[in-house]
Amino acid sequence: MVAVKKLADKFQIEMPISEQIFHLINGDIEPRQAVQNLLVRDPKHERI
Fold this sequence. Notes:
This protein is mainly alpha-helical. Helices cover 58% and strands 0% of the residues. The protein has one domain.
C-alpha cells in the first residue's frame, strides 16, 4: 500500500479510497473517520 501512495503522490493522482486505506493501515484514523472523509469529498469528474 505504501508503493501505491508514493506513486499517487509522485504523479499527483488523487486516489481517495487508497489514501484512506493507507491511513487506516498506519493507524492514523479509525474506520468510521475514513468513511466520513470519503463522504464529505466534493464529487469530481471521472477521467477514462
